[in-house]
């Protein structure tokens, strides 16, 4: 009998890639998504990739009654992976209350419903943004949590505390918090990938849209940072490697391998790359010249962060080992696919 996993935000960028890897590992998946930042045809594309159509319910996680009905409709859900959240740093500064309501209430509903429906554990989608600008690099899970730079980052910090306090109160659930670094790229089939609404805020979608001619020029937000080439440094992780981390984390929960009821893992490559290094890597990996200019810094950007992933590597037996050139080629192949299919 296949174990049933609920994936909130499962039609989104990271969610859809994770559903594919869960199905590849033999799990039965139920997707819940309100389609506020994704499209329902992601379900079709997942089915095209794996040959298995996940169940899909268009529901908002903030709607307690609707979520309760989903658990009743699909009995025996063993675990939950909670991706559903608003995630644009800049937008969160403009609309803090929307971010606090959406990102906190959705998690609270899920944590309340889990014991009621016998769900064993949850994997929560957290972010390296909780570290702010680390004092020591690479950053480990023991690094201090610094004051968030945005309401978005603050919701991630508060969510982690909500999970910890709920487990500490005696709730019969287990949890793994995965702190992502910068997820990029697309599935090798180019059937799923990152498809932001409107003008992309994140680097890679803007970069590939510039490369294909949708955007005239990529702005590099500052080259006067205290880094070797002056541009910011990040830990860019292939989204499929990130998705696979969720499968091993879920197995850790379901097979009772956790050493604590709440565990935290940095999910990164351990390799820092600057914006300019990434641009040059894209050009050499694809042969496509990129039109870019150096502009002023973007408010809220931290200078440099990359992971020490050794805890995840050793404890989970998981490693992000896809070469950056392959990852960038997958992002480019996805952008070409969007043009060929008339999506963008
Ligand atoms: C990366 C680097 C920019 C765009 C945020 C969130 C994180 C996660 C990913 C949700 C920075 C530079 C960017 C551009 C640029 N969010 N840049 N020109 O800000 O590291 O992380 O998104 O999952 O939680 O904090 O990602 O891709 O926006 O920026 O120069 O047009 O690229 O300054 O140095 P970021 P990003």
What's the quick description here?
With 344 residues, the protein is of the alpha/beta class. It has eleven helices and 13 strands.
Question: Can you walk through the features of this model?
Answer:
The protein has 344 residues and is an alpha/beta fold. It has 2 domains: 4-185 and 236-267, NAD(P)-binding Rossmann-like Domain (Rossmann fold), CATH 3.40.50; 203-234 and 270-306 and 318-338, Alpha-Beta Complex (UDP-galactose 4-epimerase, domain 1). The chain is built from 11 helices and 13 strands. The protein has helices at residues 13-24, 41-50, 64-73, 89-94, 96-116, 151-168, 203-212, 239-254, 275-286, 310-316, 324-340, and strands spanning 4-8, 28-33, 55-58, 77-82, 121-127, 174-180, 182-184, 218-221, 233-234, 236-238, 262-267, 273-274, 292-295. Strands 3-2-1-4-5-6-11 form a 7-stranded parallel beta sheet, with helices on both faces. A two-stranded parallel sheet has the order 7-10. Helix 1 (13-24) links the parallel strand 1 and strand 2. Helix 3 (64-73) packs parallel to helix 5 (96-116). The longest helix is centred in the N-terminal third of the chain and has 21 residues, at 96-116. UDP-4-deoxy-4-formamido-beta-L-arabinopyranose is lined by residues 87, 89, 127, 129, 182, 201-203, 206, 218-221, 232, 234, 275, 298, 301.
């Amino acid at each position: 009998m296949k174990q049933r996993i609920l994936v909130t935000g499962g039609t989104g960028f990271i969610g859809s890639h994770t559903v594919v890897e869960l199905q590849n590992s033999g799990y039965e998946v139920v997707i819940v998504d309100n389609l506020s930042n994704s499209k329902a045809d992601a379900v079709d594309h997942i089915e095209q990739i794996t040959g298995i159509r996940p169940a899909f319910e268009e529901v908002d996680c903030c709607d307690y009654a609707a979520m309760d009905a989903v658990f009743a409709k699909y009995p025996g859900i063993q675990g939950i992976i909670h991706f559903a959240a608003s995630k644009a740093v800049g937008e969160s500064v403009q609309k803090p209350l929307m971010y606090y309501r959406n990102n906190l209430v959705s998690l609270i509903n899920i944590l309340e419903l889990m014991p009621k429906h016998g769900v064993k554990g949850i994997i929560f989608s957290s972010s390296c943004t909780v570290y702010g600008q680390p004092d020591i690099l690479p950053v480990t899970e023991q690094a201090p949590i610094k004051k968030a730079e945005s309401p978005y980052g603050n919701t991630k910090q508060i969510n982690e505390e909500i999970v910890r306090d709920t487990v500490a109160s005696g709730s019969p659930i287990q949890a793994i918090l995965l702190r992502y670094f910068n997820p990029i790229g697309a599935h090798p089939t180019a059937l799923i990938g990152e498809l932001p609404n409107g003008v992309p805020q994140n680097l890679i979608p803007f970069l590939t849209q510039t490369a294909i001619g949708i955007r005239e020029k990529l702005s590099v937000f500052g080259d006067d940072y205290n880094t070797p080439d002056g541009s910011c440094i990040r830990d860019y992780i292939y989204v499929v490697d990130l998705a696979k981390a969720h499968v091993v984390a879920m197995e850790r929960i379901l097979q009772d391998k956790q050493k604590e009821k709440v565990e935290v893992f940095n999910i990164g490559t351990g390799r820092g790359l600057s914006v300019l290094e990434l641009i040059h890597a894209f050009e050499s990996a694809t042969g496509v010249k990129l039109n870019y200019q150096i502009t002023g810094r973007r408010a809220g950007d931290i200078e440099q962060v990359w992971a020490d992933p050794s805890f995840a590597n050793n404890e989970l037996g998981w490693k992000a080992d896809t070469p950056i050139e392959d990852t960038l080629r997958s992002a480019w192949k996805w952008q070409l696919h969007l043009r060929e299919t008339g999506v963008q």
